[in-house]
Amino acid sequence: MAGSEPLSFTPLDSWLPLYQNLLIVAGPCSVENLHQLKTTAKELAMLKQVPVLRAGVWKPRSRPGNFEGVGEEALPWLQEIKKETGQRIAVEVAQPRHAELCLKHDVDILWLGARTSVNPFMVAEIARAIKGTGIAMMIKNPVSPDLQLWIGSIERIFQAGSNKIIAIHRGFHGYHKSRYRNIPLWSIPLTLKKELPGIPVICDPSHIAGDRRWIKEIAQKAMALRMDGLMIESHHKPEHALTDPIQQITPAELQTLLKQVIPAEKKDQTEKQLAELRALIDDKDHELLELLAERLQMVEEIGIIKKDNKISILQPERKNDISTDRKEKGTALGLKTEFVDKLFSILHQESVNIQQSIQKKEKNRPIDH
Ligand code: PEP
Ligand code: MN
Predict the structure, then answer these.
(1) CA 252 to CA 40: how far, in whole Å?
(2) N or C terminus: fewer CB in 10 A for the chain?
(3) What CATH number has the domain spanning 12-265?
(4) Lowest-confidence range among 50-59, 146-155, 289-298?
(5) Ligand 1 pocket test: which of 207, 232, 233, 242 has the largest number of ligand atoms within 8 Å of its C-beta?
């Protein structure tokens, strides 16, 4: 719909109960059995802050041979829970058949996972399956950091007649090592909000973190950035979960977390702007550190070659070339020469240290005759 009428989304508070203006979705990564589902759902329902129960029925696993979800059999269980607790039910659909089955079993909200929203053909097929039903849909960002692909999935669902749409920010696949399972790249959901005004965007800190230890800090950032809610994986016995056991938290832990991260009062505009810029700077700093780690890894490889070929560590000509080239590049980018100079002498020194320690290590190695 590029270039045409702006999409208009149904505001969240007109169809869902919110908690301090936020939508909280929680539930197990996967439905495993009726007992696990009931226990978790009932504990979550008691919290009152969670109007929507998420539950994976078909699980997209990277490798075959792992638990792939209970499948269709779980849908009547979810219908039963809905009657007992009054929660809305949300299920991931990855094929048109999943969507059809969910519609038959009164599932309230369907969601497209990150491995589905990345695929325009599959999104188009699912859109066909829900066409005209007006079913509510949550659309996770695609695994790859491609805003247009995310927008495209939202447009395809909108064109099928659903305007109860919620975007979910669940982080992106990154090539560098990071302590998070998926890198947040906050600028992407922030830009999505600007490109599609009125779209509710909630954050899924569970899949960004990949580890329950980091959920709180990510949720806090999402709140500082004024996201519209959170989707958090919760299981009554997380350590026994069949999928994502490391990142799930108990309903009691969820309650504590919500108290800690949800601000009682609204922050002002300046604080919001600062929070946005700080989040973007955090993204950049993490990228910088990842690049530095990669660069120094290469320095180490060069160190080994130098050692094996008895080449001296210090190569004045190379050092001068680097200095001239980086200053030129830096000034072209608007950086001060002195700053670039300082930065690269620190880097140079660190590289020399690394290569010296390689030489030392080799020298100290016991000789093997
Ligand atoms: C999930 O929510 O359990 C899931 C599979 O998430 P994602 O699509 O974000 O990987
Ligand atoms: Mn999961």
Answers:
(1) 10
(2) C
(3) 3.20.20.70
(4) 289-298
(5) 207
